[in-house]
Amino acid sequence: MDCDQKKTVSGVTLGCKLNYAETSAILQSLVERGWVVVGPKERADLIIVHSCAVTKQAEQKCRQKIRGIVRRNPGSRVVVTGCYAQLNPGLIAGIEGVDAVLGNDEKFDLHNYTRVAASPPPESTVVCVSEVAGFRTAHQACSLPSGYGGLRTRAFLKLQDGCDYGCAYCTIPLARGCSRSVSPDIILRQARMLAESGYREIVLTGVNTGDYRSGRTGFIELLRMLEEVDVPRIRISSLEPDIVTDELISLVAASRNIVPHFHLPLQSGSDRILGAMRRRYRTADYRERLFSAVERIEGCAVGADVMVGYPGESEEDFREMAHFIESLPLAYLHVFSCSVRPGTALAREVGRGERLEVDSQVASRRSALLKEVGERKSEEFRRRHVGRECRVLFEECRQGDSGKLRWSGYSRNYLPVSVEIPAGSESLAGRELRVAIVVAGLQLEGRLLS
User: Fold this and answer.
1) How many Å apart are CA 314 and CA 408, to the nearest integer?
2) How many CB atoms lie within 10 A of CB 148?
């Protein structure tokens, strides 16, 4: 592509960290071929929307976002990809102003983007979506190391794609196929590139990150390799509870750069519902793994996802779940209501009348109650840090009420922390500094230590 013919591209990502890594990888590949990445408020020749389909609400948000983008950018070509595009290409293709719909395999083929951006425009919406059974490789992906503005503090690095766990409610196998992993050589090369580009934290991500296996290299072996990368922080994204073995806990406890933070999806605190969900653990297993992590890893924070309103969930099941969550030393809790997704085992069970959906008002009440529990857990965890010292990676700055600069960032165990420094002081951006915690609110407040 000649300099005077350079086209501009913008990316809009909805959903998980894996989507962000993949969007960044696509944009970077286009940059390497002469494209120019622009911000969301700038006019772009091509806008790539990376969609999510984890819940009905996520799909609705995607549709609203797509229509808004088309309305605000009448001169841009719009491509929609990601899980919603994979699962519902016809519906998305019917949205006026969408020029192409690409599946989760096709989104990495750059010819699809250059074709859509070419003049004259395509006469009809281009739809390229493969069956997930045809997915054979895990395409490499990581955050942009160059060619795109923004502070380089945290990068996402994709380890694997797809999932073999087969949870009854989940659309991931339908949208992304079976579990498959990126070669360790590629992962290490990308990790070193991110470190050399100035990133201070690398977040390891995937659909089922801990299920990583490439040849003889498993997840633990890969982590040991990544420990040798010259980067201050390596953060593991969401892990299935059965992955958190004694060996993994020992590795994180002794590591200089793998941070003490796990996100372990719980989904339900009722063994009966966990069985119906086809999860690979029960509450006793989850409790044992969580307590082992927080007792053996200094300062370890563990967060969880929990689902309310699973079809067939009784009031007794819910009370059992609430009691179980109350007993856990969680740092935070993400609560959401179950969505019955088409094509899943759960949808078939509901369709056959084997499971009755929970009334929406009942699910909302249960959700509100658990959110209160989660807020209380988060507050308790934050308060335990008052009077302690932590290391904070600073990312953002704003003018404080006193005229001073208020810098904010995250501790190694993922607590939001802010400090105030005099106006005109040296920038803290991208620096990991010692902070004494003095106040615990929604965000911890502290003072810099020398």
Assistant:
1) 43
2) 17
The phi, psi pair for 50, rounded to 5°, reads: -95, 110
Bridge-partner residues for 46, per DSSP? 9, 77
Q: Is residue 307 situated within a structural domain?
A: yes
For the whole model, what pTM was predicted? 0.93
Output the CA angle 268-272-275, nearest 5 degrees: 80
Q: How many domains are there within the chain?
A: 4
For the stretch 163-180, pLDDT in tens is 999 999 999 999 999 999
**Integer angstrom CA distances of residue 362 from 58, 308, 414:** 21, 9, 32
Do residues 281 and 274 lie in contact, with contact meaning Cβ atoms separated by under 8 Å? yes
Q: Is residue 31 part of a domain?
A: yes
Asked if residue 146 has pLDDT above 70, the reply is no
pLDDT in tens, 196-210: 999 999 999 999 999
- Residue 108 sits in the same domain as residue 16: yes
Residue with tokens 């806990």: 249
Q: What is the C-alpha separation between 82 and 10, in angstroms, rounded?
A: 15
**Which residue has tokens 């609705």?**
60
- Domain presence at residue 244: no
Interior angle at CA 15, CA 9 and CA 20, nearest 5: 45
